[in-house]
Predict the 3D structure of the following.
Amino acid sequence: MILGIETGSLVNHALSSYVRVPKVGEGATEICWSDRHAGTVIRLRPHAVLWRRDIAKRTDTNGMSECQQYTYSPDPNSSVKVFKFTPRGYKSDTGSYLSIGYRNEYHDYSF
């Protein structure tokens, strides 16, 4: 992701550069402008990953804070998003990137 153009978050910029070979069933995080959404790789295609957002339940008591903790569970009713492989990583048609190998939910309360 290009900082200031595709993301407004230094953390998201750094996370978007982490690219690895995906596996079906493993966690993956959608990297947006300043938010992140936890999900699961549900299918692989040549040069693309199909991903579904998980249910992220906040477990901390920090309120509108940057210190956020979540538990994750599958959501079979969530829509499927396609991320195509590009030279800079897996990117969706909406401009978000996919970081594979972990789940991380984050809501930026400043927007």
In short: The chain has one domain: 10-100.
